[in-house]
């Protein structure tokens, strides 16, 4: 057992240790943590798996608080459980792989043409994109898929994830690749629209000074009469007492 793993056995105060480890993980930016709470979650994962943070970062990445597994880590996990794979195509137009496990063999593929009829390659909310595709119109493509290399990486990650998920679900255990997780976040993000004026419009509007309301003279006279009556009553009481 390496010293980097045995350190978990020598921890005297687990709460303080995990909090400190979480801070270091967050500040290192290895996993894409945005808060120290996310770093603590990864620290707990390290302790539970009894592996150092660097080893965890080789397999996993954090996308908007969700733990994702890299495609090459999925393939490594497939080999660890006795599976095999063969790369059939790895291009910007087609990703294809053949996976074998327990004498069962299956081919998985995804082309760029097929991906273009799915909502995850376009900008906007998934429901809106599906409506546009169903009506025959083409939504705006995400900028990251405008280049061949990014398309190649996305197609490969998705076909690997799909294949390993079918043939070795115990390897992925419900996690997705970073490429898939990023697209899930993108297509489910909602844009909040308001019908009111923008900040710029508000800034241009003249500041309205408060208008002083005129005081009714009748109200003043009535209040003064009430005060005079109270004073006379008080004076009468003093005289009577004398």
Question: What structural keywords apply?
Answer:
disordered C terminus, 2 domains, two-stranded antiparallel ribbon, 5 strands, flat, 3-stranded antiparallel sheet, alpha+beta, 242 residues
Q: In a nutshell, what does this entry contain?
A:
The chain has helices at 3-6, 14-28, 36-49, 53-59, 71-80, 112-115, 126-134, 148-167, 169-172, 178-188, 199-204, 217-241; strands spanning 60-63, 66-69, 84-90, 94-101, 104-111. It has 242 residues and is α+β, with helices and mostly antiparallel strands.
Mean pLDDT: 80
**Percent of residues in β-strands:** 5-15%
Number of domain modules: 2
Approximate helicity band: 40-55%
Structural class: alpha+beta
Which of globular, elongated, flat, extended, rod-shaped describes the shape?
A: flat
Strand order of the largest sheet: 3-4-5
Q: Count of DSSP E strands?
A: 5
Main sheet record:
3 strands, antiparallel
The ordered H/E elements are HHHHEEHEEEHHHHHHH
- What Rg, in angstroms, do the CA atoms define? 34 Å
**What is the end-to-end distance?**
105 Å
Number of helices, counting only DSSP H or I runs of 4 residues or more: 12
In the predicted model, the low-confidence regions spanning at least 5 consecutive residues are 189-215, 237-242
Protein name: RecT protein
Organism: marine sediment metagenome
């Amino acid at each position: 057992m390496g010293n980097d793993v045995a350190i978990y056995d020598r921890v005297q105060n687990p709460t303080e240790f995990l909090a400190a480890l979480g801070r270091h993980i967050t500040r290192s930016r290895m996993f894409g943590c945005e808060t120290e709470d996310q770093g603590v979650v990864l620290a707990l994962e390290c302790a539970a798996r009894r592996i150092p943070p660097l080893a965890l970062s080789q397999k996993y990445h954090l996308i908007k608080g969700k733990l994702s597994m890299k495609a090459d880590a999925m393939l490594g996990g497939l080999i660890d459980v006795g599976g095999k794979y063969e790369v059939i195509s790895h291009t910007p137009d087609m990703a294809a792989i053949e996976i074998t496990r327990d004498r069962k063999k299956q081919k998985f593929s995804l082309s760029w043409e097929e991906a273009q009829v799915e909502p995850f390659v376009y900008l906007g909310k998934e429901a809106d994109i599906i409506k546009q595709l169903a009506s025959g119109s083409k939504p705006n493509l995400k900028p990251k898929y405008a280049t061949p290399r990014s398309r190649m990486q996305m197609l490969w990650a998705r076909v690997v994830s799909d294949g390993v998920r079918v043939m070795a679900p115990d390897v992925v255990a419900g996690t997705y690749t970073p490429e898939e997780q990023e697209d899930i976040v993108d297509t489910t993000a909602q844009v909040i629209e308001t019908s009111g004026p923008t900040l710029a419009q508000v800034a241009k509007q003249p500041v309205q000074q408060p208008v002083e309301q005129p005081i009714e003279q009748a109200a003043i006279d009535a209040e003064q009469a009430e005060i005079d009556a109270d004073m006379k009553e008080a004076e009468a009481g003093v005289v009577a007492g004398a």
